[in-house]
Specification:
It is a single chain. By secondary structure, this protein is mostly helical. The chain has a domain at 41-69. It has helices spanning 3-18, 23-47, 55-76. Helix 2 crosses helix 3.
Amino acid sequence: MRLPYLTAALAGLAMSLAGCTTTQDRAARAQADMAKMITIYGPACVQLGYADKTDQWRQCVLQLSTREEMERASASASYYSGWGPGYWRGRGYWGPYW
């Protein structure tokens, strides 16, 4: 009868321990993220006229990545999610049908 509680406690403990990462793990993840950004946005920055592997090229990669993340974040804000486009047209937080 206490088995579900024990299972839930062990699952919670496992999830909390999984969240603990070392500095090396975070650095490796950041390096992998940057390598992915370079693969995706590097060729576009070269086509825009930046010399490959220069500081301006790296800045271009970061700007293109940030721009896409901002566009993705603004597109994912739905009509009913608070500060979406309907909020400023006087419809309030919940939208027009509440």
